[in-house]
Amino acid sequence: MRVEKARACVLRVGGTNCDLEVKVALEELGLQTDILHMNQLKRTRLSDYHMLVFPGGFSYGDYVRAGAIWGREMITKFRRDLETFVDEERLVMGICNGFQVLVEAGLLPGNGVSGVPTATLANNSSAKYECRWIRMRVEGKKTPFAKTMKVGGVVRIPIGHGEGRFLLPSEDALKELIKEGQVVFRYALPDGKPAEGAYPCNPNGAVYDIAGICNKKGNVMGMMPHPERAFFGWQTPVWRAEPPEHGDGRKIFEGAVEYLKRY
Q: Active site residue: 9, 96, 163, 214, which one?
């Protein structure tokens, strides 16, 4: 079913490489989607869109640290527009490198566009690039991206990153994140229980097994795993057998599209 009025914008810069996959996923669900380079965004009103996606890849070569340059560029050039976009409770999604961008820009885990990081996505504890399918436990439904999913349920989605270890500055900051219901996804064991840091189920050493979080309003969500790589059944690891109709990543996009039907 086509979402008649809502539109999504998938941003890209030098180094992004998952923009087309996200566009295909959203359009498969009926959402009109444009891919825009940051230079094109200067000539386009952000207010024309209802969902903004920062896809995965290696923006600007991940120099300085992953997502840092792109995050600073967004704050420098589009801070006011981005603040309005978030305040109007339009959706913002960051996937892998996009999650790193949202953290660097201060959109996560905070509740605004501060431009000051209050968390980090550090180098994996393994000190190497991790690329595999993992399990995620659905921890909360505060964000529309998780609305079609069951709390405590487990989804299988692939990862591909070298800097995905989510860290906070203090134990109090973690307690606040949990209290506010901002933890959306946690890395899980095969039985669905939290990984408790066990490698490789927790592939990067993230505190509290955090794989994805949202802001306090729930309309900004970032995650390290790639749902666009688990959208179609033929993308899943069971391709040798009878593949499922859909992959688990589809559920995340379905929640967003269902929310956007309000427009």
A: 96
